[in-house]
Automatic annotation (TrEMBL):
Protein name: CR-type domain-containing protein
Species in which this protein is naturally found: Chryseobacterium luquanense
UniProt cross-references to PANTHER family, sorted A to Z: PLASTID TRANSCRIPTIONALLY ACTIVE PROTEIN, PROTEIN SSUH2 HOMOLOG
SUPFAM superfamilies associated with the record: DnaJ/Hsp40 cysteine-rich domain (SSF57938)
Domain CR-type: 19-75
InterPro entries in the record: HSP_DnaJ_Cys-rich_dom, HSP_DnaJ_Cys-rich_dom_sf
Amino acid sequence: MIIDVKTCPDCNGAGQLRCSDCNGTGSETFRCDICDGKGYVYEKNEDDEYIQVSCSNCNGTGEISKICRNCNGAGNLNCSKCNGTGEIPD
Ligand SMILES: [Zn+2]
Ligand SMILES: [Zn+2]
Ligand SMILES: [Zn+2]
């Protein structure tokens, strides 16, 4: 018996879906809470003056990026409807 298959409507036959958590980028970006997203912090120097220094927590970017836990940095996930095959039995 031949089993008819059709293209999976969820992934359009690709077998993979873009990770919605990271929008396919594979990483999630968070605002740095040390500098509140500004990229710099104020530090006292030897003369007791506040000086603006680059935030070491985020390297001055104001953002921290982490590998997306949902897709493990891949940016996409196997389609659960078709198990990554792109086809489902008709
Ligand atoms: Zn920072
Ligand atoms: Zn992801
Ligand atoms: Zn699918």
